[in-house]
Amino acid sequence: MKYMIGTRGSKLALAQAKDVCFRLQKAYPEHSFECKVIQTKGDQIQNKPLDQIGDKGVFVKEIENQILSGEVQIGVHSMKDMPAHPAEGLIFTKAWKREDPRDVLILREKGALSELPQGAVIGTGSRRREYQLKRIRPDLKVVNIRGNVDTRLRKMEEQKLDGIVLAAAGLHRLGMEDRITQYLEIEQMIPAPAQGILALEILEGDTETARLLDALCDGETEAAVCAERGFLKAIGGDCHVPIGAICEKMEDGKYQMHTMFGNEDGTKLAFASVIGEDPKQLALGAKEEIQRQLSEDVMSQVALKMDR
């Protein structure tokens, strides 16, 4: 059978989809796999922050429509870009092994965050990254910057920014590790839920495709997806509010998850770390701890935002 794999057209999206295609072709030589580039609304609008053009679905809706219509059988996305729930009629298959989930700094001249001068300018389109950076260095000026990796690097040079923040996973997948100036450890910057994990999306009820994809899953990564995206769903997070979650397996076999959540302007942020054996319970435990820290007023504002 021939399987069409839908993907966005950026270098990173193509690299991800081609890797999926290669791994599937190697595992299942009796089938054929081909990538199809599909342009999304999020790719078409580059001059506005994400929260001004819609939710995370702006990067996936067109691909999902083609899965629903049968034009493609598999959609490949970055899981961190996916809404809390897949579109009606679609499902995510089990997760494959995670790439490095950390955020990184790419600095134009300096060699570390600590070397940046007072008032240095950093580019990012993420409130989660912005507010956590300012916890480390309140003096930093953070400006909005969007686009694919090459576009952000170009904008950094053109606008003479001191640096930008990107995901390590994307740079690794592009073979651009040499551009990384500094890895931001979890203690400094909690990543987005499911950062570094690919989302493989298929038609609900397509049991044969699910069987092929699930056979290549990674159990530890699947547990992390369950915990981190479970927290995202439980807390009601979207692209308008800063939210982070990272779940890692400990030496004793238990899991530890670090989370953060706040209001839109970053004036109230809460952090929680939970340990346990059940990823679903970790999600609920983190939610309860965050809610305990934040006032009911903040949580109600977020709920109203989600209802709009």
Question: Could you please describe the fold and organization of this structure?
Answer:
With 308 residues, the chain is an alpha/beta fold. The chain contains eleven helices and 13 strands. A hairpin with a 5-residue loop joins strand 11 and strand 12. It is globular and about 60 Å long. The model has no long low-confidence stretch (mean pLDDT 91).
Global Rg: 19 Å
Major sheet details: 5 strands, mixed
- Number of beta strands: 13
Instruction: Give the strand order, joined by hyphens, for the main sheet.
Output: 2-1-3-10-4
Poorly predicted runs of 5 or more residues: none
Our estimate of the beta-strand percent is: 15-25%
Helix-strand makeup class: alpha/beta
Shape: globular
Summarize the topology.
Layout: E1 2-7, H1 11-27, E2 32-37, H2 41-44, H3 50-53, H4 61-69, E3 74-78, E4 90-92, E5 103-107, E6 121-123, H5 127-136, E7 141-143, H6 149-158, E8 163-167, H7 168-173, E9 182-184, E10 198-203, H8 207-214, H9 219-235, E11 243-249, E12 255-262, E13 269-276, H10 279-293, H11 296-307
Parallel strand pairs: 1-2, 1-3, 6-7, 6-8
Antiparallel strand pairs: 3-10, 4-10, 5-8, 5-9, 11-12, 12-13
Helix pairs in contact: 9-10
What is the compact description of this entry?
This protein is α/β, with parallel strands linked by helices and 308 residues long.
What would the keywords be for this entry?
5-stranded mixed sheet, 13 strands, 22% strand, 308 residues, alpha/beta
